[in-house]
Amino acid sequence: MMNLLKHFALVLAVVTIVWNSAGWSQTGGRQILNQMVSVLGGGAFTDVKEIHTTGRFFSFSKGQLSGGDLFADYIKFPDMERTEFGREKNKSITINKGAEGWVFEPKDKEWGPQPASQAEEFVVGFKTSFDYVMRFVLNHPQTTIQNIGSEIIDFKRADIVELRDSQKNRIQISIDRQTHLPMKMQVRRADEAALREEIYANWHEFQGVRTPLLVIRSTGGVKMMEIRLEAAAYNTGLSDSLFAPAATASK
Question: Is the domain covering 2-69+125-234 a CATH 1.25.40 domain?
Answer without folding.
Answer: no
